[in-house]
Amino acid sequence: MNIVIFGPPGAGKGTQSKFIVNKYNLYQLSTGDLLRNEIKNKTELGSEISSIMNAGDLVSDNIVSELIEKFISNNKYKNKIIFDGYPRNLKQAKNLDKMLRSHGQKIDIVLKLSVTLETVKKRILERQNQEKRADDNEEIAIKRYKTYENSSLPILDYYKGFDLLKVVNGESTISEINAEISDLIDALKG
Ligand code: ADP
Predict the structure, then answer these.
(1) 144-175 burial: b if 16+ Cβ within 10 Å, else e
(2) Helix 90-102 and helix 61-72: axis angle, to 10°?
(3) Which of 55, 100, 115, 155 is disulfide-compatible with 119, CB 3.0–4.6 A?
């Protein structure tokens, strides 16, 4: 099974992905983590993208697409991927379908975590104290939320059209959300 977890920055995608990975033996593919690794390792790509990420903008589709392709084409991960942070715009969503199709795979469910801008701001400021991410401050958090609304939200209609979309209340407690997600995945496995 391949899952897309979707939602604004600070919605809890990473937290819920880790839970799903453990419970269902999947692999988390976080484009944000992969990109941050490039910056941490001071690669050429890392220096190209750091200012874009730190401004709360999206890295170019081609760069992210390459990272994704490496994962999808690896048999170890076949039908065992949770996409966290990808797709982030309609072009990426269509590209993901195409890449999966060419490797004999598809998306089985899209889980959307709904949270308000107020919650996003609160959680990002809390995370800032722990993780020290360069893009976790109030101003950039608001910018990332706007990027989400403008670029990412239109994907939802696309997935609705394929009847893949399930909306989960991201304001509940972590364990309540865990339980809701498990129910949705179990129903799918039937
Ligand atoms: P969050 O969901 O909290 O915004 P992520 O770690 O998912 O955090 O993403 C951090 C940043 O990485 C984004 O603001 C963007 O600059 C870049 N990024 C991550 N995924 C993508 C993607 N699919 N396309 C373009 N840029 C991306």
Answers:
(1) bbebbeebbeebeebbeeeebbbbbebeeeee
(2) 30
(3) 115
- Residue 132 has a pLDDT of 87
Q: Which residues pair with 29 in a beta bridge?
A: 83
Which domains can be identified in the chain, with CATH numbers?
Answer: 3-189 (3.40.50.300)
CB 58 within 8 A of CB 88: yes
Q: Is the CB of 123 under 6 A from ligand 1?
A: no
| Of 59, 60, 86, best ligand 1 pocket probe by most atoms within 8 Å of the beta carbon | 59
Decide whether any atom of ligand 1 lies within 6 Å of the 10 Cβ: yes
Residue 119 pLDDT exceeds 80: yes
Mutate to test the pocket of ligand 1, among 60, 63, 88 (most ligand atoms within 8 A of CB): 88
The alpha carbon dihedral of 94, 109, 2, 174 has a sign of: positive
Strand ranges in 46-119 using DSSP code E only, listed in sequence order: 81-84, 109-114
